[in-house]
Amino acid sequence: MNYPLFLRVQSIVLMSSSVIFPFYLLLIRELGDSYAQFGLAYGLFTVTSAFAYLAIGRFSDRFGDRVLLVVHTLGMALLLLYIPVVTAISHVYFIQIAMGLLGAIQKNTEKTVLARQEIATAVVGRHIGGYHFKTSLWSAGGIILAGYLIDFLTIGSLFYIISVCYFYATLRLLLPSATGQKK
Amino acid sequence: MKRMFTCAVIVLYMTAFGLSYVSYEQREVTVSDQSRILPMHVKQIQAATSTSDLTDWIRQFAAKQQHVSIAGLQHSQGGQTYLPGATVLDMKSYNRILRYEPKQRRITVQSGVTWADIQQKIQPDRLAIKVMQSQNIFTVGGALSVNVHGRDIRYGSLLDTVDSFRLLTADGTILNVSRSENNALFHLVPGGYGLFGIILDVTLQLTQDEWYQQQTIALSYEDYPAYFRKHVLGNDAVRMHIGRISVAPDGFFRDMYLTNYLRSSRTVPIEDEPLKQETIIALPKALLGLSRYSDFGKNQLWSFQKSYFLNQTGTDESRNNVMRSDSAFMEYTNPGRTELLQEYFIPVDAFVPYINRIRSILTQDDLNVLNITIRYVEQDETAALSYAKQDMFALVWLIHTKTDPASLAKTKRVIQKLIDATLDADGSYYLPYYPFATRQQFNRAYPHATAFKAAKKQYDPHAVFLNQFYIDYFQ
Predict the structure, then answer these.
(1) How many CB atoms lie within 10 A of CB B60?
(2) pLDDT of residue A181
(3) Rounded distance between C-alpha atoms, residue A39 and residue B47, angstroms
(4) B335 and A82 in contact by Cβ < 8 A?
(5) What pLDDT was estimated at residue A26?
(6) Is B3 on the interface with A (CB under 8 A)?
(7) Mean pLDDT, chain B, as a whole number?
(8) Is the pLDDT of residue B464 over 50?
(9) Which of A32, A74, A156 sits opposite B24 (nearest CB)?
(10) Cβ-proximal residues to B42 (8 Å cutoff; 6+ apart), any chain
């Protein structure tokens, strides 16, 4: 897939996940009533990721990275609509499993796209560094902005806004004309 | 084909968004007090900022026959600040100081103002609060609604220091309430747990800030009542007083130490004395932590605190600073466990046999008591639900418990025994804490409850103001 589009989508994705992460943790803490439940919720996330990587790797070779990125961004957009309405710890377990899956898709795809770039071995380091620089800068901006915004927004509305961000990323992926280039 | 797919995704997302938003709007909110063991789903939480908003809301709730519970900082643990399905009014932002008259030693504040806010305002004018809790984190409205008492032994109850207050009643009218105006409500609203209306603002009497010299002595519980009458009540120089009785295995319900605050001859200008801030809490927090889980820790905490206070003897402190005791080290948020308060009032003369009985109950039954402090309350039956039927010692218990149903049931059994012992000694217990007491125990401790209920029906026939506490003990 084309690199400028990938970079834009990744920037949105990484910014969005950094913004919601602290508030998502707060939510889990509110719903759970023991550290054991907290540990279980995180364990589920990691275990799901672990097994998901096996399938995702093969899938990306077969169908391409863009499809997987669509699954990730659309999945997150929908999942974030669910988070504000959860009421029980069992719902959180479900979300953690779904996030484990979607998170694995994102991580794996990020690496496969980068690996598929045709770049001279001599400058791979600089290239990857540049990628991380740009996406991290977006995350930083998002986190700082969220810190100010949260005084004016409820935590619920923050989840909705970030869901829209993920959906915007989905549309960018589905409507390639927006970047003026095709794969 | 691809365009159709994209359109389908957009429609799917928008539908999901709509569904989510609708159910988000309709969800119920979970609230809990500071002990976190009575969480409930309420309809909504509304933060009050203006009197006109409050009046409009109350009229709307009354018209729709909905219930309202009133909340300040929510340190009441007996469901006084919420009710399933009701709207909780959060009064914390309703916190302006309306009028301050230093010459008349008087201040009028909105009910969400905290004692700390008042201290900040009046300290430069050498003024201090007459009666409040030992900590200054609470709101004035909350304190009046539970009719608090504190370390001061000369100014009576909080209600005695109130000139007047304004009350927003169930039909949306605002009444001035004082000893001369709407007098019946003057006895019902303080210690009325938010059941008669919203306290809008309160006019409080102030007193002068003074230097006090601390005097801490250790003694046996058997000598306490006589000592108290002669050297505390009998000595006009003593302005404030607090005692502690050991819950550590080494001196279990025998060892005590007492701190008196005596008028000091110090002449340093008191307005230059900065209000103390909570400083380093790591050590007391660690010791309290240790005492939660072991007898060793309990012994260590007792001897550390005792020698600390004994060493403080002779030091001078301003009245304002005595009235802003540390509390951050006691904050406790471990999921699955909590710290509860209980408070029992015992006639001064019944103290020794009462302590003997408590000791024997707690030798047989397990209860993880972390700390007991003792204050004095003068007989005062101004409030309809008064706890001070005679001159009493007030024992405030800090109890650690797990919050699973079995552990809570066990804690409840022991606490009911303690309440029985208290009532047998002609005592009573304080209502803002977790409702362990049976209905029978409640009626025994508060014989005026029937009259209170009749008054409630008269002033608020449709129960616009309602909370879980009322449901538990009056309905």
Answers:
(1) 12
(2) 46
(3) 34
(4) no
(5) 75
(6) no
(7) 90
(8) yes
(9) A156
(10) B28, B29, B30, B31, B69, B82, B83, B84, B85, B86, B87, B88
